[in-house]
Task: structure prediction
Amino acid sequence: MNTSPSSLPTDEPDSMHPHTPTDTDAATAHGHIRSFVHRRGHITARQQEALDRFLSKWSIPYRPQPIDFEAAFGRQAPTVLEIGFGMGETTEKIALARPGDNFLGIEVFNAGVGAMLNRIEESGLQNMRIIQHDAVEVVRDMIPPNSLAGVHIYFPDPWPKKRHHKRRLIQPPFVQLLASRLVEGGYIHCATDWQNYAEQMLDVLGAEPLLENTCEDYAPRPDFRPQTKFETRGLRLGHGVWDLIFKRKSS
Result:
């Protein structure tokens, strides 16, 4: 997505966290550390065509005012936020399998947004909307308190070097913000293939007073999260994958 993070750098189709960390300026004019780096990424002609044709149809422009979910989706339904959907493979499968839920996906990179737009059109998805903007600002400015049924954060950039850990998405201020946007019983589901980041996630989520772990520590992969081809390849090579599912406590 980092003392107060943002969306995930998943604009290339051949990796779950594709960019090489650099020592660019971390702070922004808005006072939080971004967990992605803007750079000129590859985008196909088909993805660009989707942006040109479909972005206005399926996206919600960033503006600093709360979203009316019923108006945005044309119905009343539980809304799940996904931060950093990458090329959209997992998001598409989940949205198709859960037609009764609304899905709001945040992604900053054009290639991923273009790919997701094509998936929406080809699958006939009606329960998916996109915001192409920094996730911290979206959650802070556009997501009303006590409004989300769930939050999905799958394979965020691990920023593996210790000096870059401040850029990681899962940090106490952002988790506190996310928790405040959940309804009672709403969940935050994270997944990572970096053990050190999994440990940080467990510590940070476990320290948030509004949340409680649904398991003793890590959770089994739930049926609704499909196993990606990259995850399958990693597991075959002996890499671990850790899921965490926390819920907002009842008052």
